[in-house]
Amino acid sequence: xxxxxxxxxxxxxxLADRLRAAAAAYYDTDTLAMSDAEYDAGIExxxxxxxxxxxxxxxxxxxxxxxxxxxxxxxxxxxxxxxxSLDKAPTLDALDALVHAIDGPVVVExxxxxxxxxxxxxxxRLELVATRGDGRSGEDVTDKVRTLAxxxxxxxxxxxDLSVEVRGEVFMADSRFPDAQEARASLGGAPFxxxxxxxxxxxxxxxxxxxxxxxxxxxxxxxxxxxxxxADESYSNRLTLAEHAGVGTARALAPWLAGGAPVTTTxxxxxxxxxxxxxxxxxxxxxDGIVVKADADVDRARLGSGSRxxxxxxxxxxxxxxxxxxxxxxxxxxxxxxxxxIRVEVAPVFVGGTTITFATGxxxxxxxxxxxxxxxxxxxxxxxxxxxxxxxxxxxERPTDSEPWTAPATDPNGGEWDKSTLLWRSTDxxxxxxxxxxxxxxxxxLDVEGVGTEIVESLVEQGLVADxxxxxxxxxxxxxxxxxxEGRTLGSKNAVKIVAELDRAKGAAWNRVITALxxxxxxxxxxxxIAAALPTLDALRAASVETLAGIDGIGPxxxxxxxAGLDDLEARGVLDRLVAAGVHTGxxxxxxxxxxxPLAGMTVVVSGSVPGYSRTTVAELIEAQGGKASxxxxxxxxxxxxxxxxxxxxxxxxxxxxxxxxxxxFLALLG
Length: 671
Ligand SMILES: NC(=O)c1ccc[n+]([C@@H]2O[C@H](COP(=O)([O-])OP(=O)(O)OC[C@H]3O[C@@H](n4cnc5c(N)ncnc54)[C@H](O)[C@@H]3O)[C@@H](O)[C@H]2O)c1
Prior knowledge:
Radius of gyration: 30 Å
Distance between the termini: 56 Å
CATH architecture of the largest domain: 2-Layer Sandwich
Number of strands: 21
CATH topology of the largest domain: D-amino Acid Aminotransferase, Chain A, domain 1
Number of domains: 5
CATH superfamily of the largest domain: DNA ligase/mRNA capping enzyme
Number of helices: 27
Structural class: alpha+beta
Bound molecules: nicotinamide-adenine-dinucleotide
Shape: globular
Strand order of the largest sheet: 13-12-11-14-15
């Protein structure tokens, strides 16, 4: 991005064109040309350029001054008063300034990420719904809204003969997004990019197949001009009226925010900003910031409105969860369970609090649907600590010579893929042997030091190791001469070390032995749960599909896969050979002793780190002390181990009244 103070006329014109194209896509189509953060940064750049040289102002007046960036032509329905936009507070200090200017009660609300509409009720009946359009007039979407049956915008108000106008946001709750995608696919459309885009697309079409998927939340309520209606003196009173009549409101979506009532201090507003940010990931609906507004009509009247925005309200935007970057490569590999893993490597970009270098390619079907190509500019999203993923491809920026990605026709050994599920798998066991063995010796499993990728590959290549039991048959003699490329061998010193490590690993905890078996659908967490339910190898061998299905987190489908994995190990004699090698295979628990342990009967969640422990070892510690380690906070959680923080786990635990201890207190608790 060039320095806004140095921009030439051509720079300004080019940037303005790009932003116009993006706004047109944003407001009028189902595609996205750039991320919101990039759009906002571009607008800010133009703003500075104009401030430095007002000569540029006329050329970008639409982008800086008009609602919907001048991209909407409006519609047949005139708005009685402007449906404007909101000024953005760039800093918390700017928010404070508004609170001081209001100098009276202020309301804080989530800033919903959807699109604005206006709805008129006369004598309790929904009469008219219009889009914001260009702010002066919009399109009549009354019939579409009736067909779509928006949650929070009833066809009839409850009780009252009320005549009232509500303005607010049409949005999609997170839980509806998968249904929307399904409905979209059944209608033959390309997948929605995100939930805002889905809400806009669905309202535009008004197809009955999308009924029940959208919601409405009011952020403005006013009497209808020619009717006698409640002209309360404050916004919050009018909200109460609307809520009682059955209309959804932004306030009601976050009733805990600022204690659900107007506040008067900058401290209270800042606390609300933090509280909403902390819960952003668990709200269940999309927001991009928080809105602060005057509550009393006298304060609103005193401050007045500008041409596009009111002076008694401001929005503060949260850190973006999406960013633009470029795809630099697409790689595939066969994972430990034979699964084809697709990785989209991207140019490093800072988003959601960390630097991202890759995104998941999900599966082959997903890659084809999205048509992600090397060289593409993409919007990458990282929210809620999940693996980053590609939200959309910016087609306008696609290099002309780019080629579609093709899936590998066969597995690396030329075998056919098993395409019976979305995740393609190779059924060639030799392909996953290396990965399986590496997994077995990894830190979360047997934790064998000194056995790196090169050694494992050579062991598999030489035919010395075909499964995990073979590891324990390795001798110093064979290992010493293990070839490692360029004529090198492992040597006796390393060989002695590895054999000693493997000897130690024979005594590994039972849950780690289970993990090391590398059965599909199991990993370190499942290894612990299975070990807790089936404390010995005999119990594991005898476990029926039903028994496995009853274990926490398994269920009938996974149970079948796990049982098949056990049968396969049995058939190849792996389990017998592990016993013969003297590997630890579990012990019957002593019920009385377990009940006396400090964490007996408790469900414990750890957020952040505990000094001296990894994620796996801390979970093992909890279970060794009689507790159950869990990763999410719920009403059944007995204890949260965490430093004080604004993380969603901490906030939720505090809200539920779950006992919270610091990592140090936790360790002290266990003596
Ligand atoms: N990605 C893109 O290409 C692209 C293009 C154009 C615009 N945009 C996004 O749109 C923004 C500008 O558009 P805008 O003027 O429509 O919206 P805005 O972000 O300036 O905010 C105003 C809107 O917020 C909504 N809102 C949600 N909750 C509210 C609440 N509680 N109280 C009051 N209003 C509430 C209303 O619909 C209102 O019209 C940009 O900042 C950018 O993020 C993105």
